[in-house]
Structures are given as structure tokens and as C-alpha cells.
Amino acid sequence: MGKIIKALTPFFIVLFLAVIPSAPVGSAARPESIRVAVLKGVDLLKIDGLGIYVTDGRQEQIRIRPPLTVKRDRKRITVNGKGVDSLTVSAPALATVNGKGYRGSLEITLGERGLLVVNELPLEEYLVGLINCEISSTWPLEAIKAQAVVARSYALHQKESRKGARYHLEATVMDQVYDGCAVEDERAALGVRSTAGEALTFNGGIALTFFHSNCGGHTEAAEQVWSTKYPYLRGVPCRYCQDVPSASWETTIPLAKIESQLKGGGVTIAGLRDVLPGARDDSGRLTVVTLKGEKELELPATSFRKALGYTVIRSTMFDISVMGDSLRFTGNGYGHGVGLCQWGARSRGADGFNYREILEYYYPGTTLRKVTNGL
Q1: Structure pTM?
Q2: Domain-by-domain residue ranges, the chain?
Q3: Which of 74, 91, 263, 366 makes the best surface tag, with the fewest CB within 10 Å?
Q4: CA 4: distance to chain centroid?
């Protein structure tokens, strides 16, 4: 969901064998797990690990020496040439998939376009691996703690809303970026451990805690992006994210490429010669743009950004100017702008705000509660 920000120093791989995951309030203590789709639509996997244990879809052990070569073979899966319906792999510490290490277990099944790999692991261990994918553990500790609470809240909300699905989260910006355990380190673990089991709630339920990289000076109301209103996801001013690398951006794109990208996104506009900014909402973001070609077409700014690419048009807070046969876009912020501004949280943490104050500001009306047992 948020932009991947690489830490500036090497990470130390640590083993969290003492982690005790969490359980809902009022229940017997038991691990709170999460299921994350770490790979989708692939045809070949290389799996390895010390002491890995492999079972098939009937939970019968497959006695096979690693490394494993897992392939999609029409409507079945093969592992080192042996056909199976599905596959589950676990190891005492971690197993690797295509060179990346994962804790917990790995479930391999056939998806719509290839192999689907779902990593099931304790929620708190997942969060430790997530921190350096979403922000950097070199940031102020209070910002790390705020990110841990937000990511835990989002994961718990999605786990409930996707109950019964094959997985609860994707390991990409579609949900939360997660790249396994290679980027775990002590500060990431400290941020998670210091907030163990804490989540943001609203009216007795877990809040849907969207977040993004940089709001460009003002966060966005949820209904402007997804047409669904949440009382705690309303726009607030944010001066703390202005003096950072992602505060402003610009890009120049040929009109022909814009027309092609729009067509690929399902929007046909022949002879595109200009794109005009339309109305803006209270945060300063565009709500619509007007495409001028052989015909004139009004398009939601969010749809325009999606068609051209989220890393190209980094936010809907932009201006447009004509540069010959190209258009130049100059904008502020990075991401949809809803909820926590990660760079704003970083600067607030550096300025002395604690994680509770950071969360109260970006999610007004929510309550921070211990909803699971901690480490």
C-alpha cells in the first residue's frame, strides 16, 4: 500500500524463535496468524531450507530431498517430477522460495494464472518483516511504532473481512508490502514488540487503516478515492512531509503514450491532444481530468492515475502543461493520500511526538486498544 522505502544501512537477519503471537481479548492465548499471498501466477518455484517438512493435499508427508523444483503442469502441480494436488512446506527456522526466506508455512496451490504461494505465519513475525518494506527501521522509533500499529490494524481488519478466502493479504502495494524475513532487524522488532497486540478501533471494530508514502501537505478523505466514507479517514493538513525527497515530483509523457496507456486501461480516446485539470477537492487533489481528442471525455483523476501507473503519476495532486507533443505533470505527494502519511509520521517522530499522538492525528476518532495478547 505504501511506497517501498529502502533502509540506508544493511539489515541483520535475526531469528525470532521466542516470539509468542497474539489472541483476541477474552480468549485463551493462541497464536494470531495471518495468511499472505507472496507469489501469484508463477510457473516455477525453487524451494529449499534446513529440515524442511513437505506434505501433500491429503496432509501426507512427501519424503523428498531438497531443493524442491515445483512446477505447474496443466491442472496439477509437480514437485521434483511427482504430481500432487497441493503442497505445504515448513521448516524449523525458515524455508526459501526462489531465494527469499519465509517463516511459518508455505502453501502452494493452483491459482487462476499459475502457482499461488501463501505464507501463513504469526502476525507479529509478519509485522517485523514488513517494517523495512514499508518504511525504514532507521526512522525515529515512534514512527516505527506507529507503522506497526497501523499495519497490525489493517491486517486484522482484512483477516476478518476476507474470512474464508484463500489468503487475507497480498504482499504488494495492493495491501501491504512484505518480502519475507530477509529485512528483519532489531529496531523493526522493537517497534513491533513495543506495541504488541495494539490496534486502532472504531465503534468496537478494527479500523481500516489505510496509509501512504507522502500526502503532499494534506491527507485525503477516503470517499474521494473509493466512494466509501469513513469518519476517521478524513483529510487533515500535514506540514511535516514537505521537506523530504518524495514531497514533489515531475514527469513528461508523450501524448501518444498517454493515449496508449489509457487504451490499455479501458479508456479509448482517439487523437489525444491535451489533458485538462478539472475540479479539485478540499485537499487540493484533482477529482476529474478532461481528455481532449476527436471527442472530449471526462475521467476521474484516480482512474487517470491508475491507467498511467501509480509510480508515474505519483498522486492526483498535480498540474499539467503542454510541452510540444508531450504533457508535463508536476505534482506533490506520493500515494492515494488516505490515512497515515508515512513521511509525515517520520518527521513528527523526529519532532518529539509519540506514536499515540501520531495515530490520533491521522486517524481522528479512533481508539488505540490492546486487541490481542502480545509478545
Answers
A1: 0.89
A2: 1-39+125-243+335-375, 44-113, 248-332
A3: 74
A4: 9
